[in-house]
Write a structure and sequence with these properties.
0% of the residues lie in helices and 42% in strands. It is an all-beta fold and 105 residues long. The protein has one domain. The strands form 2 sheets. It has a 4-stranded mixed beta sheet with strand order 1-2-3-4, with no helix packed on it. It has a 4-stranded antiparallel beta sheet with strand order 5-6-7-8, with no helix packed on it. The radius of gyration is 13 Å and the shape is globular.
């Protein structure tokens, strides 16, 4: 899926609304000097998506690394996991955002 980067100034209240949309990085959400990218995973509106998949997710740098590509898209490394940590429910999607393209593994 080709994602859509939403400019920070245009983020709707509550965050991205469509699957594959992402915005950021913004600093301060997760602490001083920590950059955060918010997104809806590609499966966020699938009829059979787990409940957790439907909400806005985020990753922080560190530990992730955000690279702004020449075309304005983002690459996030390492992979974007499918859980919120040990013992949490899977949201059904684990993969990468590379040059604005979502790829499931």
């Amino acid at each position: 899926m080709i994602g859509r980067r939403i400019p920070v100034a245009e983020i709707p209240e509550g965050g991205p609304e469509n699957p594959g949309d992402y915005c950021g990085p913004v600093t301060g959400y997760a602490g001083p000097g920590v950059a955060t990218v918010f997104f809806l995973k590609p499966n966020a509106r699938d009829p059979d998506a787990p409940r957790r998949a439907r909400s806005v997710h985020h990753v922080n740098s560190p530990p992730h690394v955000f690279t702004e590509e020449p075309d304005g898209s983002l690459t996030i490394t390492a992979s974007i996991g499918d859980t919120a940590g040990p013992g949490s429910e899977s949201d059904g999607w684990h993969g990468y955002l590379t040059k604005g393209i979502w790829r499931k593994v």
